[in-house]
Amino acid sequence: MRAFVVCIIFCISCCLPYAARGEDAIVDSVSVRLSFLRGVSELDSALCGNNNTLRRLNDVFADSAYVINSVSVRGSASPEGVFGENNTLASLRSATLAQVVGDIADVDTLRSGIDWDMLSGMLESCQEEWAPKAIEIIDNTPIWVIRENRVVDSRIRRLKRLERGKAWEYMDTIFFPGMRYAYCCITRSKKMQDQIPMSAADASVVESEEPVEITPPIYVAESQDYTSVVPSPGPKVKFAVKSNLLYDAALTPNLGIEAEFGDSWSVSADWMCAWWGKRNVHRFWRVYGGELELRRWWHSRAGEMSLTGHHAGVYCQMLTYDLGFGSRGYQGDRWSHAVGLSYGYSLPLGRYFNIDFSIGIGYLWGEYKKYHIEDNCYVWRSTNNRRWFGPTKAEVSIVYVIGGKADKKGGVL
């Protein structure tokens, strides 16, 4: 019996070191983050400490004291720009980081997109008065607000309108740069080789191991397809063609094109040309010229779409004319010019059409000639300079939006 007890104690004492070694086994995780410029998925090693991050990754994978268990990557983009393109950009950033470590370990690519939790955390530490309202919008407003199968509002739109855009400008400057990243999480277990006897051959192999160097890629392989992960992005610029019905009613055909860019700006160019005349009665209606206008748009309510709502702008005009009324006429054979400020409202008429009301007040100057008819001849009477300050523009235009009106962050309606 005594011999049996001694044997049991001896076995337990032999097993204790191995049990202790199992309890001492260490599992930890390492996380790193690479930063990116706005709208870019290519890696810049000189940006925001990326070079140090790459060295850190190299040290982690080269550390022979640990075994890599798993590697996961995720990308993020800031919320400005087109929603679909932001998600695509986040996926491409994730792929860039996956390509950095892909030759060393199997990588699990997580779903990428806008990191709203990160933005909420930033806002919690923000001292601005509007910060709680911004957090409430993020927590309680869906990405898209849909009613009757139509997008009528969005989380990003409400954030943009908070404090008349001042909150968005602040976040764009302070918070958004930090949201342009790719994140990598590495879990690893510590080896216990110091407690495991090694042969001389095994020791020579370990001593000969060299650190694995990580070389950042210059570009992301184009063969990778992310269209299954993110929605198709909408166009950056929305175009429309239009015609001023007032000019049409005055028998002056005209055509204009307008391009919306950014979130609330557009530029338009218009041209008109009328070349009517009856020489036998000396009646002429000849006008041609054009206009350029830069507009700033405001949307008075949620759900308003591209090129709709209130707008104000600055414009310039140039035209020539020859107007004859039987016995007398006026001819501006040199360009007359005008500059001014405009205000108007564009009313949506469905998916593709708007009707735009606008008026402009400015200054017009130019030279014109007066003439009259004598014995079927056009006799010059005088040359005059025209100087006019007042209304120089009136517009009731029918507008066709190419491709249909869209929400500001994507999603054609």
What does this structure look like?
By secondary structure, this protein is α+β, with helices and mostly antiparallel strands. The protein has nine helices and 14 strands. It has helices spanning 2-23, 50-62, 83-101, 116-124, 131-140, 155-161, 166-174, 200-207, 245-249; strands spanning 27-35, 66-76, 107-109, 144-147, 150-154, 181-190, 238-244, 254-261, 265-278, 283-298, 309-325, 328-348, 353-374, 377-401. The strands form three sheets. It has an eight-stranded antiparallel barrel. α4 runs antiparallel to α5 (131-140). The radius of gyration is 35 Å and the shape is elongated. The protein starts with a helix and ends in a 12-residue tail after the last strand. 27% of the residues are buried.
List keywords for this structure.
single chain, 413 residues, 8-stranded antiparallel β-barrel
Overview in brief:
The protein is of the alpha+beta class.
Structural class: alpha+beta
Instruction: Work out the helix count.
Output: 9
Summed over residues and divided by their number, the pLDDT gives a mean of 79
Measured distance between first and last alpha carbons: 89 Å
Radius of gyration: 35 Å
Layout of helices and strands, plus pairs?
Elements: H1 2-23, E1 27-35, H2 50-62, E2 66-76, H3 83-101, E3 107-109, H4 116-124, H5 131-140, E4 144-147, E5 150-154, H6 155-161, H7 166-174, E6 181-190, H8 200-207, E7 238-244, H9 245-249, E8 254-261, E9 265-278, E10 283-298, E11 309-325, E12 328-348, E13 353-374, E14 377-401
Parallel strand pairs: 2-3
Antiparallel strand pairs: 1-6, 2-6, 4-5, 7-8, 7-14, 8-9, 9-10, 10-11, 11-12, 12-13, 13-14
